[in-house]
Amino acid sequence: MEKKIPFKTEHIEILEAKLTQFNVNDISEESFTVKDIETYNFNINAESSMTEKHLIRIIMDVSISTNIKGIDYPLGKMKTQHIFQIKNIEELLSLNQDSEKANKSHVDLPDVIGATLIGLSYSDTRGMLISRAAGTILSKVILPVINPNRLTEKVSL
C-alpha cells in the first residue's frame, strides 16, 4: 500500500507576492468608449517552477480584451509572481526518472498542492488587478471564479 504524506494548507507560506507587469491599453483612438463594453474576455495562464531550495514559483499571466461589433480589442495585460515555501515539502517530494532525460529528474508533487498554490496565486492576482486598475479602463474588471485545476493542467512542477 502506498504511503500517504499528510498535506495541510497551513504548511504553505507565501514568501513573495508581487505584480511584475501591468499594462493598460489606450483606447482613446478607438471607435468605442468604456460604456460600450458589455463583456470581457480573459486569457489566463500559469507557469510554475521549483528552485533548488524547494521554493515554488508561480507566475500568472493575464490578458484582458473585449469584442465590440465583431472586432477584438486588447485592453490590458498583467503578470504576477508568487513564491511559496511548503514546510514538509521533503516528505511530499518524489523524484521520478524520465527515460528521455537520462540523469535528470523532475519533481512530482500531489495534484492537490498544485491546485492549492495556483488557487492562491490566482485569487491574489485578482486582488492586485482590482487595486491597480482603479481609474483605468479595467476598473470594472474582476477576474472570474475558476476551478484552479483548469490551470494546473497546463502546469507541472
Please describe what this structure looks like.
It contains three helices and six strands; from the N terminus they run E-E-E-E-H-E-E-H-H. By secondary structure, the chain is α+β, with helices and mostly antiparallel strands. It has a single domain (11-152), classed as Bacterial Protein-export protein SecB, CATH 3.10.420.10. A four-stranded antiparallel sheet has the order 1-4-3-2, with helices on one face. The chain has a two-stranded antiparallel ribbon with strand order 5-6. Strand 5 (94-97) and strand 6 form a beta hairpin. The chain is elongated and about 55 Å long.
List keywords for this structure.
3 helices; two-stranded antiparallel sheet; 157 residues; alpha+beta; 6 strands
